[in-house]
Amino acid sequence: MYRSHVLVCGGTGCTSSGSHRIIEKLEKEIAAQGLSEEVGVVQTGCFGLCALGPIMIVYPEGSFYAMVKEEDIPEIVAEHLLKGRVVTRLLYDETTKTDKILPLNETNFYKKQHRVALRNCGVINPENIEEYIGTGGYEALGIVLTEKKPEDVIQILLDSGLRGRGGAGFPTGLKWKFAAANDAEQKYVCCNADEGDPGAFMDRSILEGDPHAVLEAMAIAGYAIGASQGYIYVRAEYPIAVKRLEIAIGQAREYGLLGKDIFGSGFDFDIELRLGAGAFVCGEETALMTSIEGNRGEPRPRPPFPALKGLFQRPTILNNVETYANIPQIIVKGPEWFASMGTEKSKGTKVFALGGKINNTGLVEIPMGTTLREIVEEIGGGVPNGKKFKAAQTGGPSGGCIPAEHFDVPIDYDNLIAIGSMMGSGGLIVMDEDTCMVDIAKFFLEFTVDESCGKCTPCRIGTRRMLEILDKITKGQATMEDLDKLEELCEHLKTNSLCALGQTAPNPVLSTLRYFRDEYIAHIVDKKCPAGVCKDLLQYKIDADKCKGCTLCARTCPADAIIGKVKEPHMINPEKCLKCGACMEKCRFGAIYKE
């Protein structure tokens, strides 16, 4: 029995910051101080506050050490773990007060969160099944197999109001009900862990921090619909998640929680992994199943829907990682518990990957109905450098921009659709006043063009034509007729594309046109980018009243575009200027500006 536990984040974010070296150094220093029998080191999943990695928490005190360096470890071990004196200067600033140290759940980042899908992330060692069982893991599977009929399980999910967290928000219980109603010798349960949205890392973090929750939920799903085989489709770019899934599957089989006759109930269920090559289109359910079958990942026309003919033409259900992560707790705590959170039509919580122009980059889980303002200003710590919030993109390339005028709209499935965006899988990119919305639309469309499978003409050709028009706009070469053509193409793609990739590809364009049309017009008519982002429409100039003639800008310029004598105002030759901005970054007097 250890008197102290040191939890170190082993998620991808902190691992990239060197948390594995922190763990090695910790274990070495703990041994050197003779504390190996008293202090245990635990590698966990993501704590959520990724901006402060590597993260380390010491229990029972709950001391939150942020941005830990290897050279800090000897002091933490000698002072805190040996002598019991917390090293205050290394703690997360917000936890330190003059008279006390705040617990983590009282900080702004955590106090409005309600962790359901993320409940074990940052709490347990994801590579140890006994720690998962110690938090109530596999209790739900035991209840289902020994006390419930398949139809009872489906009714629990229907009563809970759980909707798919992959983006579309389809009722999970209804999807299971459709699959259960179709008779077949073999049925399948699939998990979408492909997660292709730029800036999204919700599913990855759950798999890295709590893989058994997904395995348990898939087994419950198998029992509910009459399936004996499950597949997790996970992208190969998630090596830590893949490794921990492999460990978890092996452990579950060893404990008899996967395989034959689980809990002596006569129910057989097993799970295999299938690695994806990173194709965004394989997030679409039929394309994902086609890829699992060993074919090129392209969508199939629907109907028939997967509940009737899915994987290998058999009845199949597909849910994403976050959806599954909620299910064991719904079984144990009851559907009323889950339905008590959120809004009337969007029950429970939602995990968001918070990124972009935000102070607290990381993973947050909030009750449905929380406003965007609360997420950005309170949980996210606001926009850096005193800049103003301009918009937030939800749903990635399939979603849309939420402008400042909708800052106080409660976030749920229906509200986001009403304002021209969508929930998506949970990426939330914050943009400030320096963001060009035309450029943002172009960025997401470039991604969609690259990721289109090319099977249907509207998506294959239409997205390229749209991108060409956006490129013309950002270069100041477009006309108002081009803008009309852009909107026409958007509507054509929405109604004629084969799958959701093409149907939702116009969303970033349509939402920016809806709320920021004046920026499009400025690019087209005035040949100016109001945000100063589009290079072809920029000019760098020097304010003669502020220029001291220090020559630093001239010495920095890679194109020799700046002329002037020492201690005299300088000038920029627009014909030579590369518009790289290096001079502006180096100027100490704020004399260089762009317009």
**Span between termini:** 65 Å
Give the count of helical stretches: 23
Class by alpha and beta content:
alpha/beta
Q: How are the strands of the largest sheet arranged?
A: 7-8-6-5-9
> Which percent range describes the beta-strand content?
15-25%
Based on DSSP secondary structure assignment, what is the total number of beta strands? 18
Largest β sheet strand count, sense and barrel closure: 5 strands, mixed
Radius of gyration: 27 Å
Overall pLDDT: 94
Unreliable residue runs: none
**Outline type:** globular
Query: What is the helix fraction of residues, given as a range?
Result: 25-40%
Q: How would you concisely characterize the structure shown here?
A:
This protein is α/β, with parallel strands linked by helices and 595 residues long. It is built from 23 helices and 18 strands.
Give a structural overview.
With 595 residues, the chain is α/β, with parallel strands linked by helices. Helices cover 39% and strands 15% of the residues. The chain contains 23 helices and 18 strands. Strands 7-8-6-5-9 form a five-stranded mixed sheet, sandwiched between helices. Strand 10 and strand 11 form a beta hairpin. Helix 7 runs antiparallel to helix 8 and helix 18 packs antiparallel against helix 19. The longest helix has 20 residues. It is globular and about 85 Å long.
Descriptive tags:
595 residues, alpha/beta, five-stranded mixed beta sheet, 23 helices, 18 strands, 39% helix, 15% strand, globular, NADH dehydrogenase (ubiquinone) activity, NADH-UbQ_OxRdtase_51kDa_CS
